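Hi C.,

You asked whether I'd gotten around to modeling the 87-residue construct. I have! Everything is below, sequence then structure, no commentary in between.
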Amino acid sequence: MKPHRGTLVLVLGILSLVVCSPLGIPAWIMGSNDLKEMDAGLMDPSGRDTTKAGRICGIIGTVLLLISVVIGLGFAMLAVLGAIAHH
């Protein structure tokens, strides 16, 4: 049985919220994969709660990243439209 990576997933998830939103993507993917392996009996299930918490943080970090990208693109489009309107 493989050892769990709950602490790593949690650290990546927390870092995605605090420092670097793109780290939410690997936290989300790794957490989901690890939970599937735990359910299949291939990974140590003792880190299930930590893995779940890291996955949730990763999901939130990824959503915040997507929202910030959409807002940034919106501002960029407004700037372009404003520049076109003034010419």
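If it helps when you're writing up: Residues 6-85 form one domain.

Thanks,
B.
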